[in-house]
Amino acid sequence: MGLSKNARGLPIGWVAERTGLSVSAIRFYEEEGLVSPGRDRGGRRVFQRADVRRLSFVLIAQRLGFGLAEIRAALDALPEGRTPTRDDWTRLAEGFRARIDARMAGLAALRDKLDGCIGCGCLSLDRCAIYNPEDTAARLGEGPRYVMGDSPRAARDKGGQGQPEGEGLDE
Amino acid sequence: MGLSKNARGLPIGWVAERTGLSVSAIRFYEEEGLVSPGRDRGGRRVFQRADVRRLSFVLIAQRLGFGLAEIRAALDALPEGRTPTRDDWTRLAEGFRARIDARMAGLAALRDKLDGCIGCGCLSLDRCAIYNPEDTAARLGEGPRYVMGDSPRAARDKGGQGQPEGEGLDE
DNA sequence: GTCCTTCCTCAAGTAAGGTTTAGGTCAAGG
DNA sequence: CCTTGACCTAAACCTTACTTGAGGAAGGAC
């Protein structure tokens, strides 16, 4: 059976069990350029141990909250043609460490603001520190804002009479 | 023009400028049950100030990393038929505070493990603390795992000869 | 009466990250 | 020889959170 590690290479099913990835996910990752297994004469994918390590890295990085594009970029930084060394992985890990710190700082800032808001109950678009669009740093996702650099605040300032007057719960 | 707050209700365009949401997003949120504006005789949506506050809450909760389904659930907890009070919002905010704390704890755990891994370079599926599937608590997203409770470790244990022997970089 | 703006609905498109399905190939075992 | 199990491709489908486009109607301004 093709299930075992043979001669020079691992079949996709083995890699799938090994990594916990589904076979379809591994094929998808190949399409996305995250791994590049060889092929045998029958056209079947042949993986090396280095590929398994790349896939492990993908799983880990995903758990850290990174998208496939970012992960691919990180993997592309690995020297081509040679098996990545411990130092290569360590460099990647340090990069991720920095990103995690940034994420945590953003969350901490958000939490502190939320603490300020608890008991205030304002939820005012003018006054709420959480909503305040200035601190881009704390942004977690993209959200439904106008994408084309067309700030609603800017847009509002040109339209005349509508100028709203504060929106707290306290009114 | 329909741009201003009139008699008893705000038009969608005003709400859009006010909240920074796009008109299409607001209509989408209505479909999703996040707001339920009334209609005038012409069939146009008529929003109240309470709707604007609901939408503000949606924006804030999204920044905190919650999905629309979770946000709808939170909003559904608001008493029907009456304008939400400061206490209502405060309860919601406290719930979010707890979720943020959980997220931060997860990230902190992950960061500590990553620190342990920097310099080790193993990226071993057997040994890497980051990859270790036991600590479900730190999970950030869903990932490409087998969904049907079909653990790869469990599956591996039944298949005979393939039993892999450790996958570190150090081999 | 006609124009412009804002509004309406419904359908389809987008991006990410995969899964599912349909149809086909290859090597080993009985 | 024929079946079985693992593998292959291509394309369709899924979810979330929206946007975009087509085609149309209401209502104030001139």
SSE topology:
2 copies of one chain form a homodimer.
Chain A: H1 12-19, H2 23-31, E1 38-39, E2 45-46, H3 49-63, H4 68-76, H5 86-117, H6 152-158
Antiparallel strand pairs in A: 1-2
Chain A binds a DNA duplex (30 and 30 nucleotides) through helix 2.
What do you see in this structure?
Chains A, B: This is Redox-sensitive transcriptional activator SoxR. Chains A, B: Keywords: 2Fe-2S, DNA-binding, Iron, Iron-sulfur, Metal-binding, Transcription, Transcription regulation. The structure is a homodimer of 171-residue chains. The first copy, chain A, is mainly α and 171 residues long. The first copy, chain A, has two domains: 10-112, Orthogonal Bundle (Multidrug-efflux Transporter Regulator, Chain: A, Domain 2); 115-171, no CATH class. Helices cover 47% and strands 2% of the residues of chain A. Chain A has helices at residues 12-19, 23-31, 49-63, 68-76, 86-117, 152-158, and strands at residues 38-39, 45-46. In chain A, a hairpin with a 5-residue loop joins β1 (38-39) and β2 (45-46). Chain A is elongated, with a radius of gyration of 24 Å. Residues 133-171 of chain A have low confidence and may be disordered. Chains A and B meet through α1, α3, α5 and α6 of A and α1, α3, α5 and α6 of B. Chain A binds a DNA duplex (30 and 30 nucleotides) through α2.
